[in-house]
Amino acid sequence: MKILTVCGSGLGTSFMVEMNIKQLLNEMGVDGVEVDHSDLGSATPGSADVFFLARDIAEGGASLGDVVVLENIIDLEELRTKLTAVLQDKNLL
Amino acid sequence: MNKALNILINVLSEPSVLVALIALVGLLAQRKNLSDILKGTTKTFVGFLVISAGAGVLQQALAPFGDMFKAAFHVSGIVPNNEAIVALAVSKYGSSTALIMFFGMIVNLLIARFTRFKYIFLTGHITLYMSCMIAIILSVSGFTSVSLILFGALTVGIFMSLSPAVVQPFVRKLTGNDNVALGHSGAVGFAIGGLVGMAVKGKKDIVSTEEINFPKGLGFLRDSTVSIALTMAVFYIIVAIFAGPAYVESHLSNGKNYILFALLQAGMFSAGVFIILSGVRLVLAEIVPAFKGISTKIVPNSKPALDVPIVYTYAPNAVLIGFFSSFVGGIVSMLILVLSGGIVILPGVVPHFFTGAAAGVFGNTMGGVRGAILGAFVNGVLISFMPILLIPVLGDLGLANATFSDSDFGVVGLFLSGLNQMGGKMITMIGIGLVLLIMILVSLKKPKSSAQ
């Protein structure tokens, strides 16, 4: 499975969320999930199975497909809850 | 022996190789497996070459813009865009940039470990751009080899620790806690946005920007490729019209229609930035996680300083108001500059978006709608006038039609060049040392109570 985190310039926020997801995956002991980050313009539907993005660009990224919107991008607990749901959905947890 | 040394110097003065080696060390330190090490090192190496390739594309777009601007208004027009100026500087200052960045991150760790400035600056691209500007300014001031790297690294490290501290009071007020900090090059502009908000809030209850119903659908501005291409197209076309079809078609476009030419160059500018951003992304992918990993191990109780969009979700309306207001500040400043007949700074959509939005958010936190509008406007004026003062201190690069944008570049750049004008290298060294000393003294004064 591939997760893509997305933000406006694809440098700061998306990268931070990517590192947090990797850390959580590590804690949960989940293998085989590829995580990468990108800017909104380069992300295309199909370039990942699930997309994570912040509330403020939710509209711009709505057409990507399977999108998870984060209300608060620095809240690790929110990320953990939403990531867990995704992993359960894909039968990885 | 001499030959071997020569080869070594040759290798190390090649920025792409140097950055790859730094990534290699970071990956080895994290005890990654062989395939990860190979992947990370190669990506970093290629990433730096991608940045240089993007510089070529940008230059192709910027050169005719400068020519048209001069022909049209008889003044020079400069685009403040961090990506552009960094890419143009990489060929000449790449190695010193890479070393200053590497040691600067270590200085940041040390400051966080031993003083009460507990901020770990994790916004890697800002560290890269700041290191690049400092490499240029110190080189122009006469610093070379060891002194260049040492004092450059000290300056970057101090910036990485002080910049988050400047906005932290406002971040605390906005987020309601002290767990996270802001790591960006617009800190001074954000803090001024907050202060302006405090000054204009008036006696009645604050009306927040979030109580306004705003038309959505301007979200495409968040996509930098689109917003850069569109705004640059407006600028290029206006300038082409003023320069006139005769000039453009005979001197620049090889007979191609002047409006079409302007449109193509605007697209080319956006393409150049796009390429450079991909390069920066590749370079940072290995270095930032290594830095984060090390910092969590050796600096207990440190706060991560993160990129500016972390504050956007708290007040999305203030983001849009802040952007527009900052941009208006940029346009007003541009008109003043055109009338005064000197160098003209064009309002760049990227800096006005990212820093104007945050200045608006903090202005709103402290002073509601009025605070958001006026705070961001002041930020817009600030980032239009500061780059002008930076141009003379950038040496040859000052003439490159591009310059650094956000407020902190101006503050750090003027601090360094001011010291150099006062008394050359010696005073510059003393000045940098003094700032560090003050930070240490401040930490001694209040040992535990405020360190949290």
Give a brief rundown of this model.
With 93 residues, chain A is α/β, with parallel strands linked by helices. Chain A is 37% helix and 23% strand. The model of chain A has no long low-confidence stretch (mean pLDDT 90).
Report what the structure shows:
The complex is a heterodimer of chains A (93) and B (452). Chain A is of the alpha/beta class. Chain A has a single domain (2-90), classed as 3-Layer(aba) Sandwich (Rossmann fold). Chain A is 37% helix and 23% strand. Chain A is built from three helices and four strands; from the N terminus they run βαββαβα. Chain A has a four-stranded parallel sheet with strand order 2-1-3-4, with helices on one face. Chain B has one domain. Chain B is globular and about 60 Å long. Chain B starts with a helix and ends in a 7-residue tail after the last helix. The model of chain B has no long low-confidence stretch (mean pLDDT 88). The A-B interface holds A 7-13, 15-16, 19, 37, 39-42, 54-57, 59-60, 71-74 and B 122-126, 179-180, 216-217, 219-220, 222-226, 274, 277-278, 280-281, 284-285, 288-289, 292, 306-310, 312-313, 316, 319, 350, 354.
Largest sheet of chain B, in brief, is: 3 strands, parallel
Please provide the count of β strands of chain A. 4
Average residue-wise pLDDT of chain B: 88
Strand adjacency order, main sheet of chain B: 5-1-6
N-to-C order of helices and strands of chain A: EHEEHEH
Total strand segments of chain B:
6
- Tell me the span between the first and last alpha carbons of chain B: 53 Å
Low-confidence spans of chain A: pLDDT under 50, at least 5 residues?
none
